[in-house]
Write a structure and sequence with these properties.
Largest sheet: 10 strands, mixed
Organism: Cetraspora pellucida
Low-confidence stretches: 116-123, 228-237, 351-366
Number of domains: 2
Distance between the termini: 107 Å
Number of helices: 3
Order of helices and strands: EEEEEEEEEEEEEEHEEHEEEHEEEE
Radius of gyration: 36 Å
Strand content: over 45%
Shape: rod-shaped
Protein name: 10731_t:CDS:1
Number of strands: 23
């Protein structure tokens, strides 16, 4: 399979770069009309079409154009369906047509070169990217310092699991089995992030380092449903705090006994920053003129896609074909840090029994 054409910025006279990238598809538009290759047969005339064909239309490829670098700096070739925009040596008011590729040693090579020097009015063309995808992997979470001091934010919650009253004159010994659970949950939210609108457009995988009540556990979150927030759509149940065991409880005469679990619970929002690795995908032109469908693009094209998507966040660098951006948000931590089992008892002040209309304290008349 032939090598993919590099995705470089188009260079214009004067040393500037345009927001146009080589080797990815564009629609070329003037005043709402789309440049059409006329089926790209040899010699077919290039026309303007008032209809914008979408990807599912059989005529879609007629409006797809690629910019390719030439051997001359600042001059480019424009191709569509494997044929090249060619002047055929024409001059003023001559119509351009589609032609086979001319190599740099051909006397007709210059007929397929288009310098970028700036045009006006009827010669101004808009380059529109018709179809691309962005994917993101979010990782390297860094949490606020509160994450290391969760015990300062606990609330004691009491759960009564066993009560008994001994109304007899002797003691009783009872066995009880305790089995209680407290779910520990963390949920990540980008609702407070200025990038939330942008993230809604992405396919997002989140490799979150679990910040919670039972230590650090890696967890991959796939965020598919963008109509609701990540916080609502993905509650990550990572662990449980379990209380279990058998206990013997002796209840003295005239005694109330209650066995309780005291949970040390936390429910806390912790701010974080994270790194999103953004990857761009689009059709790409190969050096042999064929098109590779939805291949990952080079970093210049990904940067162009980000700007085209309206991204206004912080770009912190690049890594190979990927763009690294900073993402902000918060993680909500809920669960039990620890627990205690507590037995409490109260001696009943008086045991009152009614027999034959006589009120007797502490014993029954016979």
């Amino acid at each position: 399979m032939d090598t993919l054409i590099p995705n470089n910025s188009v260079h214009i006279t004067g040393g500037k770069d345009l927001e146009i990238i080589t080797g990815i598809p564009y629609k070329i538009i003037n005043d709402g009309h789309y440049l059409d290759n006329g089926d790209a047969d040899y010699g077919s005339y290039v026309t303007l079409c008032g209809h914008n064909y979408d990807r599912n239309d059989s005529k879609y490829s007629r409006q797809i154009w690629y910019i390719e670098e030439s051997a001359n700096l600042g001059e480019y070739r424009i191709s569509s369906n494997g044929k090249y925009l060619d002047t055929f040596g024409g001059e003023h008011e001559f119509e351009c047509r589609m032609n086979y590729e001319s190599h740099c040693d051909s006397p007709y090579y210059s007929r397929q070169l288009w310098p970028n020097e700036g045009w006006y009015s009827r010669q101004l063309w808009k380059f529109e990217i018709p179809d691309y995808q962005l994917k993101a992997e979010i990782e390297n979470f860094k949490y606020d310092e509160k994450i290391n001091d969760l015990e300062s934010y606990v609330t004691k919650v009491t759960s009564s699991i066993f009560t008994s009253r001994n109304q007899s004159l002797g003691s009783n010994k009872l066995g009880i089995t305790l089995s209680e659970k407290m779910q520990n949950i963390s949920s990540w939210s980008f609702n407070k992030s200025k990038e939330i609108v942008f993230l809604d457009k992405l396919n997002v995988d989140i490799k979150a380092e679990y910040a919670g009540v039972k230590g650090n556990l890696p967890e991959i979150i796939k965020w598919d449903n963008k109509t609701i927030s990540l916080e609502t759509s993905k509650k990550v149940k990572l662990d449980e705090t379990n209380v279990s065991g058998k206990y013997s409880v002796e209840i003295q005469k005239k005694e109330d006994v209650e066995v309780k679990i005291i949970w040390y619970k936390v429910n806390l929002d912790v701010q974080f920053t994270a790194i999103a690795k953004i990857m761009g995908y689009s059709d790409r032109l190969r050096k042999n003129g064929s098109v590779a469908k939805m291949e990952q693009v080079d970093v210049n094209a990904t940067l162009s896609f980000l700007r085209n998507s309206g991204f206004e966040g912080t770009i912190i660098g690049t890594e190979g074909k990927n763009v690294l951006v900073e993402i902000t948000g918060n993680v909500n931590i809920q669960g039990a840090l620890k627990y205690e089992i507590e037995k409490s008892s109260v001696v009943i002040p008086s045991l009152i029994t009614a027999v034959d209309d006589h009120i007797v304290d502490d014993h029954v008349l016979v």
